[in-house]
Amino acid sequence: MFTGIVEDIGAVKTLQSDKQSMEITVVSKKM
Fold it and tell me: How many other C-beta atoms can be found within 10 angstroms of the C-beta atom of residue 1?
């Protein structure tokens, strides 16, 4: 049960980091 929660948190963190990197690339393309 705890391992599942940890995996969920890890997945959320990776999704957030992917979103941030995508936003950074979009901003760099606009400049």
Answer: 4
The C-alpha atoms of residue 13 and residue 22 are separated, in whole angstroms, by 14
Q: Which residues of 3-25 are buried (b: 16+ CB within 10 A; e: fewer)?
A: eeeeeeeeeeeeeeeeeeeeeee
Tokens linked to 29: 């393309």
Pairwise CA distance, residues 25 & 7, whole Å: 27
Q: pLDDT tens-digit profile of 1-31? A: 567 778 888 888 888 889 888 888 888 887 7
